[in-house]
Every structure is written in C-alpha cells, then in structure tokens.
Description:
Layout lengths: L1 H15 L4 H12 L23 H22 L3 H4 L3 H25 L4 H11 L6 H9 L6 H30 L6 H20 L1 H12 L6 H19 L5 H12 L5 H27 L9 H25 L4 H10 L5 H12 L5 H25 L12 H4 L7 H11 L5
Amino acid sequence: MLVVAAAKTAGALANRLHQPSVFGEILAGLILGPTVLDVLAWPVFLPPPGAPGAPLLDLVRDLAQVGVLLLMFVAGLETDVAMMRHVGKVAFWSAFGGVVVPLVVGTAVALAFGLPLYWQAVFIGAMLTATSVTISAQTLLEIGALRSREGSTILAAAVIDDVMGIIVLSLVVAFARASTAGIDWRVLATVTLRVSIYFTIAILARRWLTAALRWASSLGVSQAVLSAAVVLMFAYAWGAEYIGGVAAITGAYVAGVLIAQTEFKTIIDAGIHPLTYSIFVPLFFISIGLQANARELGARAAFTIALIGVAIVAKAVGCASLAWLSGFSPAPAIRVGVGMIPRGEVELIIAGYALASGIIGRDIFSAAVVMVLVTTIVAPPLVRLAFPRHAFVLGTVDETLIGPPDVRDPRRHQAQASRHSPHSR
C-alpha cells in the first residue's frame, strides 16, 4: 500500500514539473530506501520475530520482476514493425551509432576504473545503449518540433535503438551465463546455437500463438484473451531463459512483438495497460530506488560522474555522427543526437538483472540509477537549446522517415492531429 501510493503520488508530482512519472517513482524509491529513510527496515514492516514470512522488500522485488516482464511485453506490443520498415537509413544508422559508441566507450571507462571486462564492464556498456525517448518527445511536442524531420527521426531511431539494446542484452546475458572467465569458440558456438534455436522456435510458434488466442476468444469468459496473452508471455519468457539462455525479458518482448501482429492486439492492448501500470510497473520503478543506496557512492563518485558523462556524450556523438554520415547536415544531426540522450526503462532493467545475478554490486547499481535520473533531468533543456522554436512549423512531416499514414499508429496520429487542431486549444 505504502509503496504503490508513494509511486503514484511521486509520478503525479513529476508530471507537474514536466518530468516523466518514472523520474518521480525512482526518486520516491530513493527517499524511501536506504539512501534516506530505509522505511522497509522499520520494525513495523518486518515480520514478527519467529513468524514465517519474508521482509517486505523481498515481496516488492518479486512483484517488480513481474512488472519487468509486463513492461517489456507492452514494449513489444507497441513496436511498430511496419514503421520500422519505412524509417529510412538515417533513423537506422543513428540508432546503430547510439548503441555501438556507448557500448564501446562505456566498457572502456569501466575497464579504466578497474572493473573486470567479463562481465561487469560489458554489462555497464550494455546499460548505456538504449534510449528512453519519452521526455524528449514531450519536449519536442511543446516546442512544435515533434513532427519535424529531426523529431520523426528521433522517434523512429528510439524504437530501433530499444530493439538493438535488447539484442545486445540477450547476447551479453547468454555469454555471461555460458562462461564467467571469457569467450572461447566452444562457448561462442554453444551460445549462438541456443539463441538461434530459441528464436527459430519462437517465430515458428507464431501460428500456434494466434490459434491459442482464437481459442481463448471462443471460451465466452471474461478477459480470456488477455489471460491467454499473459500466459503466452510467461511461456516465451521461460523459453528465453531455459532454451535460449538469454534473459526472460527478451522472451516477453518477443511475445509482445508477435502478438502485436495478430487481430487481437487492440483487445490485449486495452487490457494489459491497466494491469501493468496500476501496480506492477510502479512497483518496479520504485523498487529500483529501494534497492539503490546513494550513500555508497562515496568510493564510486568519480566513476558515477564518468558514467553520466559517457551516457550523455557517447550517445549524442554516436547518434549525431551516424546521422551526419547518412545524409543529415551538421545542425539536424546534432539535434538527433541530443534527442537520444535520455535513459530509462531498459537501462534499469539491465542494471536490475545484473544486480540480481551478482554481476555488479550495489554501488555500481546505484551509480546506474543516478545516471538515469541525471540524463532525464538534463534532456529537456538540451533539447530546447538544440531545437530553436522558430525553426519548425507544426504539421510538417517527412514521409520517407516515418512512413505513409497507413503504416503509422492510427491512435497516435489521431491524438497528434487533435492536439494541433484549433478546436483543442
């Protein structure tokens, strides 16, 4: 009760300050956690001496893991495969640069601070790959640049960026599980075979996945299709762990992408969001703050500062340089790079997985949480600085970057149109 109420209240306050709700939820977790109050260690929240039961934090962690799977499932549902086929080379290569450069530079910086390459340094590099574009999109909308050429490229590149981030995470997890010392050819062959088998089965099973949803729709009971979708999501997550040797969140994401191609997407979409965002996802974000301890950053202060610097500079340089090489002039390329700076859900999921697996310690985890919060704070002013308000006209869209109207999300298109309509003001 306390955790969910705190998460929702903090999220609402963050929105009032023009920040994403996730910022407030993580910050609330930091305040309630060992960084400030450590409320879950208070006697009132502990089981009585001798009584069965685990501390409340363990329960929050278990529910948060369900929230992670649901969050990645929703991300899969919202991945517009048709749009990705039409985004053009600029969005793709911007995303590619925004993944490779932070991965390499982040790994190198971790090595410079004495962390072992296998697997702490590699996981730190992986944490810096994906973009959370929510705050950039909100800021671009406010200044009228969301549907500009650069804004459209940022939105498309962020989708591709997340997919690439999931692929990087999957490979790193698979190699880390297969070998703790490094990578040899036998490990490489085994990992490649397991991953290939899993994805082959997952894609070929799409026919039975659709059949299962149709069967559920014929049962005539309440929310049968949604229940079947959640069961299939857990099945794909289990298969990712035990067949592919990759993270369960990869399976949840794949299930979402495949189910989004069926005729049941709208029904599942309408039901999964209340289930996910009412309890489970707020619990996940606030649990991030509950598990972090900023007091432990004293010895890691220099590393935390370096991590923040790499997160901002490497992402901006990687995206901007590849956008420039793909045909953008310098100024628009810089705008794309700046718009890709914010971090969020995927970084926290990777950090949480590495912490739970014992790959990184709580000090590195806390540094990652601070990095996400800082990139979220600095993104809006940097975006406003890079995008002059007078340079854009609402409603101008480069169709070659985001695809023709029939391949866009119609709900998003209608919502944007209504926001820009004179009757909505």
